[in-house]
Amino acid sequence: xxxxxxxxxxxxxxxxxxxxxxxxxxxxxxxxxxxxxxxxxxxxxxxxxxxxxxxxxxxxxxxxxxxxxxxxxxxxxxxxxxxxxxxxxxxxxxxxxxxxxxxxxxxxxxxxxxxxxxxxxxxxxxxxxxxxxxxxxxxxxxxxxxxxxxxxxxxxxxxxxxxxxxxxxxxxxxxxxxxxxxxxxxxxxxxxxxxxxxxxxxxxxxxxxxxxxxxxxxxxxxxxxxxxxxxxxxxxxxxxxxxxxxxxxxxxxxxxxxxxxxxxxxxxxxxxxxxxxxxxxxxxxxxxxxxxxxxxxxxxxxxxxxxxxxxxxxxxxxxxxxxxxxxxxxxxxxxxxxxxxxxxxxxxxxxxxxxxxxxxxxxxxxxx
Length: 368
Description:
Layout: E1 2-6, H1 9-12, H2 17-31, E2 36-42, E3 55-60, H3 69-77, E4 82-87, E5 97-104, H4 108-111, H5 118-125, H6 128-134, E6 137-140, H7 143-153, E7 160-162, H8 176-186, E8 193-196, H9 205-218, E9 225-229, H10 236-245, E10 251-255, H11 262-268, E11 271-274, H12 283-290, E12 295-298, H13 303-307, E13 312-314, H14 319-331, H15 333-347, H16 352-367
Parallel strand pairs: 1-2, 1-4, 2-3, 4-5, 5-6, 6-7, 8-9, 8-11, 9-10, 11-12, 12-13
């Protein structure tokens, strides 16, 4: 078998889907030392993913999300004679392999097109119906996404397989000295509320700011809110909301924090808040649980199946619901201890090895 895995996106946009592809490739190297894997990179990407003797790097010129990507990438891949191509970023090329697997992480662009740029809408919304028809099989990162594909695009359940994401081993409870050192270096207070994610409308940051403002009215000594992540798109309203509520002095923005610091950032927080309108998986919630930090998450899409009983669920459209859940975790020590213990236990059930094992079974089934 000759299997291609498209990792070009990591050159353009690290995190999220790029990290999913990276972990799958790394775990496949531990699981399968026989199959010939071709890991597809953009030619300018200096970071090579070839973790085993049976893995080779393939360089391509076609950029991710280009308007002619489906056809240009097909032409580039033809000479490699792939038996199967796995496209982790949902949209496969027109050809380039005998069989095609895609991973669909979420369908937020169908539910909330107003939360995306026109370019992103064109790339995903205009092609997803074709992509799910063209693919021989579809991997999804949650049962919620599987249901969405069936309900919105009529994809039969037999054509889909759920393989939930894993959590990096670096996310774990850390010694107090390690957390204190990172806190001092990053300018973080001793106690804080945490958000981790891209600064974009889908994450419902304005709703979180409204909730935090309510907390400040009732609890003047409420811990600061730390916003850790990177700028996405359409974020102007977020900062307009900060100004309107007068919260600038009570927020700490950590733009693009080093990935090595994220475990300590989670460890130092009293609670993680992720009140997103939609998440295909919600990896920050899992990372927080693995660090022993209780999550407060929206009661929508995949988030309830990720956190289970180890977090509090809120209505993302109701800032009072978000504020009340944050208040409970901050103020109720017994609740916080119970959520911490439950979260640590639950996080152990999510591994990248399991994610890759399921992917490998699907590969072999298609090519058997």
